[in-house]
């Protein structure tokens, strides 16, 4: 790995990120204890804040891997501080994914850090830089679902369990979407270094539209069904069942009113 030098201030964790972590901790506590008068509000804030934390960690993983791959400019750009305001496209990387979670309960992948690929030598390093982000979502999904697949749910309040299930759904969707080998997504970035120069030149103009293409496909009922069947299969394998997923999303969308079914199983 390349030896790199960055200023201490380039690596200092941003107060903005620490504030988001604090919101996650406080609202997670409120969800666990039932402190909030409206549990749905606490779940909404907890899941949203935790989702933003995961987005920051996703981009940090890209930047940190690029740093060790040879791009020493990521520190000066503020990418190592975990501050989402330093990202190249803060709206695309933070605001839009949050809006998609609110509207459709899907983990939208965002692209935020600009990596100077010319500074990175070697195909494997380029692939690893692209893979680092979605692998972070995989780790986050495993963390969220640990109580389920470790059979350690005794004593875990129902609302907190539901919130973790919905957060896990977001992480799994983000990981799967990001790993699709579609231009503009991380999955294509993993395989791009191994493609011929001619193929890369032909594909390059379509990169800005890759995510739009994916979401257009997801509008097709048959494709949407296959996609979410895959999501649910992964969650089932991790011990998260239909009830947890459904009630997690139901609680998250508190403005629609909680279902009687979820209130009964809480």
UniProtKB/TrEMBL annotation:
Signal peptide: none annotated. The keyword Metal-binding applies. InterPro entries: Metallopeptidase_M50B, Rip2-like. GO terms for cellular component: plasma membrane. The chain crosses the membrane at residues 16-35, 42-61, 90-115, 127-150, 162-185, 206-228. It is found in: Cell membrane. It is a multi-pass membrane protein. One of its GO terms (molecular function) is metal ion binding. Keywords: Cell membrane, Hydrolase, Membrane, Metal-binding, Metalloprotease, Protease, Transmembrane, Transmembrane helix, Zinc. GO terms for biological process: proteolysis. Its cofactor is Zn(2+). Its main location: membrane. Belongs to the peptidase M50B family. This is Site-2 protease family protein. It comes from Streptomyces lasalocidi.
């Amino acid at each position: 790995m390349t030896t790199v030098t960055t200023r201490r201030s380039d690596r200092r964790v941003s107060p903005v990120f620490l504030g988001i972590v604090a919101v996650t901790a406080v609202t997670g506590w409120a969800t666990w204890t039932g402190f909030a008068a409206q549990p749905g509000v606490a779940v909404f804030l907890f899941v949203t804040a935790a989702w933003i934390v995961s987005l920051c960690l996703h981009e940090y993983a890209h930047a940190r891997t690029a740093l060790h791959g040879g791009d020493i400019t990521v520190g000066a750009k503020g990418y190592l501080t975990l501050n989402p305001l330093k990202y190249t496209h803060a709206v695309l990387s933070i605001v839009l994914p949050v809006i998609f979670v609110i509207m459709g309960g899907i983990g939208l992948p965002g692209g935020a850090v600009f990596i100077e690929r010319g500074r990175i030598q070697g195909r494997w390093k380029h692939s690893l830089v692209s893979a680092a982000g979605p692998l972070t979502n995989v780790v986050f999904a495993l963390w969220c679902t640990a109580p389920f697949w470790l059979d350690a749910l005794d004593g875990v309040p129902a609302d907190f369990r539901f919130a973790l299930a919905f957060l896990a759904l977001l992480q799994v969707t983000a990981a799967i979407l990001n790993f699709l080998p579609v231009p503009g997504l991380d999955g294509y970035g993993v395989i791009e270094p191994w493609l011929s120069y001619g193929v890369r030149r032909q594909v390059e103009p379509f990169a800005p539209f890759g995510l739009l293409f994916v979401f257009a496909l997801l509008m097709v009922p048959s494709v949407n069904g296959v996609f979410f069947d895959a999501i649910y299969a992964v969650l089932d394998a991790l011990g998260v069942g239909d009830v947890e997923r459904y009630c997690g999303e139901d609680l998250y969308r508190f403005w629609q009113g909680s279902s009687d079914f979820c209130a009964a199983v809480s």
